[in-house]
Design a protein that fits this description.
Layout lengths: L10 H12 L7 E4 L6 H7 L4 E5 L3 H12 L6 H9 L7 H6 L12 H19 L5 H18 L15 H4 L17 E3 L3 H4 L5 E6 L8 H4 L1 H8 L25 H11 L2 E9 L6 H9 L2 E12 L9 E12 L2
Parallel strand pairs: 1-2, 1-4, 2-3, 4-5
Antiparallel strand pairs: 5-7, 6-7
């Protein structure tokens, strides 16, 4: 799943630095991923720490992370996936608003795939409504659909706009593949909340922060994933069919620094790690000064290839800074 700001390829770097600076075995430490996104970091640390708390304000992210961190039983999962893959096509919300055949001139999916999404999404909802599946299985199946949809969407990897003509992968019929999910511990927690609100209620050992760093709003770039996740009637706006979305203060020049300051001051964690790259709204020196006022500070960095939605194969380099704070008690 291509995802803006994903840290999946940086996991070896993050694991090495976090383990080194914590200085104690991670298996006795709690780990909180406050801006979870696609969940790469939380999943990466899941088997190495005492338990994981994951949060994101976007609903599609909450579903994905719930599936990866809260699933406790995979019984009959493959059988259910097979049944969903064999459903007859249905013309529903996605076909109406996001396929050419729906009449609103949006081209996010082929007509067939849009109807397949509608059929699967409605059937998952029916199972849940009839109590054929519990909430845990409901989220697991929704996450499977959401991730599968990203492979056949007619977009440049994000959903802020669609392509004029169907690209090759968008012609491929939608097919659900079971997620590589492990059976998890009861202690894992998954939240769907504003980070600056939730931080006041949390405490633990390791806090990992990966907030939005530029002007892009995730709610706009991935609006269609929220639409599929919620699957409730609404009136899409404009050419791209946007829905009302959460506007992050971390993606605004006037509020990003203050939001970070409030977050760090309210954090009740001993070890805090902030990922932020050289293209970020907040100046690197300002982050350093802020953290030095709160405890012992260090900084490390690594150069890596940046994901670019318009050209995923082009070699865009960026520097990922990891700001490290051992907070005063």
């Amino acid at each position: 799943m291509h995802y803006i700001g994903s840290k999946e390829k940086l996991l070896p770097f993050l694991k090495r630095e976090i383990s080194h600076h914590v200085g104690e075995p991670l298996h006795v430490k709690s780990f909180c991923d406050l801006f979870a996104g696609s969940g790469a970091v939380g999943r990466g640390f899941n088997e190495e720490v005492l338990h994981v708390s994951s949060n994101d304000v976007e609903y599609y992210s909450y579903i994905i992370n719930h599936a990866y961190l809260k699933t406790s039983s995979l019984k009959d999962y493959t059988h259910q996936i097979d049944e969903l893959n064999q459903l007859a096509l249905t013309q529903g919300l996605i076909f109406k608003h996001y396929a050419l055949g729906g009449g609103e001139k949006r081209h996010y999916f082929s007509d067939e795939n849009a109807q397949k999404i509608d059929a699967i999404r409605q059937h998952i909802e029916l199972w849940y409504h009839n109590q054929s599946i519990d909430k845990e299985r409901y989220y697991l199946l929704l996450a499977t659909l959401i991730k599968s949809v990203t492979y056949i969407a007619n977009t440049a990897s994000i959903f802020s706009a669609f392509l004029k003509n169907l690209k090759k992968t968008a012609h491929t019929p939608l097919y659900l593949d079971a997620l590589h999910v492990r059976e998890n511990r009861e202690e894992n927690r998954v939240y769907h909340n504003d980070s600056n609100t939730l931080i006041k209620e949390l405490q633990g050992d390791i806090l990992y922060l990966d907030p939005p760093y530029n002007l892009r709003q995730y709610g706009a770039n991935y609006h269609l994933l929220n639409t599929i996740a919620e699957y409730k009637p609404f009136k899409p706006k404009g050419k791209t069919g946007l829905r009302k979305y959460y506007s992050s203060p971390f993606s605004k020049r006037k509020s990003a620094y203050e939001s970070l300051r409030n977050l760090l001051e309210n954090a009740k964690f001993e070890h805090i790690f902030l990922s932020y790259n050289n293209d970020g709204i907040i100046d690197n020196n300002d982050i350093e000064k802020l953290m030095k006022n709160l405890g012992k500070y260090e900084q490390v960095f690594q150069e890596h290839k940046r994901f670019n939605a318009k050209n995923a194969t082009k070699n865009y380099k960026t520097i990922e800074y990891l700001h490290i704070l051992k907070k005063f008690r």
